[in-house]
Write a structure and sequence with these properties.
single chain; 264 residues; alpha/beta; eight-stranded mixed β-sheet; 30% helix; disordered N terminus
């Protein structure tokens, strides 16, 4: 995968004729909401859920969240609204209200989780997030422990073997089922109604989203990175606040086109 710096935040492809046929894929943390010190401390703008509901209708149902969070957690944040979701980096996929696929937790994941908990118990600021199918180690509250935390995660992943993939992000590393990826989830959804035949738009903020950007680029869609950092995304928005403004305006107007994302 090639990581690049887009030449301009307003760079865009020629999407003439695609305005009525978008499929919108949205990351959650760092994209729809600002990052927080702890996963359960994020705050969601109360207008986001209704706006996404409106855009879901505008896009003929072709709107999905693509996140490292479990589906159940995203549902809680957005209640009472429910959307298609690829959760746990694609290890879970819900489409049309039905869970269509879910990876099995690797057999050694419970032992690995206990090892990570022991590490967290002996290091202030380290947080273990047990997602049942995957497990994440956070060091946002203890940045000085990044090297130790990453070394442990790499060692655990190596011992677990090919059943897992080590997924790194902003102050976090996660052990996920090897076959799961955001790019794979987007590719699968794009073969199913109501996404089939549409132009994909994927918006994310982290290295965990690069596989999704790569897939969307290959499909001739629009990939958008929130914030700084090298990326294979072709366009950039400054912050989750800018994205929310775009989505809220689109929901109010009842129209979402690729051009809307070039205004950030």
């Amino acid at each position: 995968m090639d990581l690049i710096e887009p030449e301009s935040g307003n760079q865009s492809r020629d999407f003439a004729g695609a305005a009525q046929a978008l499929a919108l894929f949205l990351d959650f943390d760092g994209t729809l909401v600002e990052l927080a010190p702890l996963p359960d401390q994020v705050k969601i703008d109360r207008r986001v859920g209704p706006a996404l509901e409106k855009l879901h209708s505008v896009l003929g149902g072709a709107l999905a969240l693509v996140s490292g969070r479990p589906i159940s957690v995203l549902d809680d944040f957005l209640a009472p609204h429910r959307f298609d979701i690829a959760g746990l980096h694609g290890a879970q996929v819900r489409l049309g209200g039905a869970l269509r696929s879910e990876s099995q937790a690797p057999a050694a994941l419970r032992d690995a989780t206990r090892e990570l908990v022991r590490f967290a118990n002996s290091h202030v600021g380290i947080i273990v997030e047990d997602k049942r199918i995957s497990v994440a180690l956070h060091w946002r509250l203890a940045p000085q422990l990044e090297e130790d935390a990453l070394a442990l995660m790499r060692d655990v992943a190596a011992r677990m073997g090919p059943s897992v993939r080590l997924q790194q992000g902003k102050s976090v590393a996660e052990l996920v089922p090897a076959e799961a990826s955001k790019g794979g989830a987007i590719a699968w959804l794009m073969q199913e109604p109501p996404y089939l035949g549409r132009v994909p738009v994927f918006i994310g903020d982290d290295i965990t989203d690069e596989a999704g950007f790569e897939t969307v680029n290959a499909l001739g869609g629009l990939s958008i990175r929130i914030g700084e950092g090298k990326t294979c995304a072709t366009q950039r928005l400054a912050s989750p606040t800018v994205l929310r403004t775009i989505l809220l305006d689109a929901a109010e107007s009842g129209s979402l086109t690729p051009h809307a994302f070039s205004q950030g």
